[in-house]
Amino acid sequence: VRPDIAEVEQALKNDPEIATVILEPTGGHYSCFPIQPEPFLKQLREVTARYGVVLIFDETITGFRVSKGGASTRYNIDPDISTFGKVVAGGMPGAAIGGKAEILEMMSFKGTPDWDNHLRIGQGGTFNANPPTAIAGITGLNLIAERPINEQADAMAARLKNGLNEAFQRTEVPGFAYGIASIVNPILGLESKGDFEAPVISYEERRQAMTAKRAGHLTKALLTRGVHAMGGRVFMVSAVHTEPQIDRTIEAFEGSLRDLRDEGVV
């Protein structure tokens, strides 16, 4: 998807009731519907600031994965609010909201009955103030900050992405793999236009090429070879994946492409 900043600005100009713009900074659904973060995110920050609209980055996927500081650090953008998922809890159930003080203070108790009981924005959570979650989160975030976690994951993802694209070429099955940092998205039925990071793919192109049925076939084909891809649409590579595991995944992917080709799926 090629985002159109002029269209966004026109929408904000036409409707002063729009309070916020929220997005996954690399594209929706694990980047399955990729956008081009540069220069769009910078343009979006400028436009939302101009119209007094709150900009929210949903960093459930990108948070501390696309860089040690998430997408906001990678692309040098200062959103008003950022949301994070289990990464802040060491993989345990938990989440966090970060943002500008004047916004987050809306949730704070001030000791005045009118504010605390009527004006304050309530916030609750099952795992609020949960010690095991907090300890796991602190430990995990320290590991990310102090060790080459991102670098290792990115290197393994690059190896995987290159191998998947070579598999497409060897099997002569239309498709390619793309992705940012340690996110790798395979797509069947479309030829690459040369961008293997954030390609321009329209919503309709993506929807028609990688149907639920086709993704399901790919998922099952990979499973028969001992590999699991999330919904057949994304590989989330980690720092503990090894080169032999990546190579085994590439081998399984190539075998799966041959299976799907022979069965007439692709």
| N→C terminal distance | 23 Å
Determine the CATH superfamily of the largest domain: Type I PLP-dependent aspartate aminotransferase-like (Major domain)
Principal-axes shape call: globular
Please give the count of helices: 11
User: Strand pairing plus helix content: what structural class?
Assistant: alpha/beta
Tell me the number of strands: 8
Quaternary class: single chain
Question: In the CATH scheme, what's the topology name of the largest domain?
Answer: Aspartate Aminotransferase, domain 2
SSE string: HEHEHEHEEHHHHEEHHEH
List the strand order in the largest sheet.
Answer: 1-3-4-5
Our count of domains comes out at 2
CA radius of gyration is 21 Å
| Helix-residue proportion | 40-55%
Query: Which runs of at least 5 residues are low in confidence (pLDDT < 50)?
Result: none
Mean pLDDT rating: 95
DSSP strand (E) fraction?
Answer: 5-15%
Quick one: biggest sheet? 4 strands, mixed
Overall CATH class of the largest domain: Alpha Beta
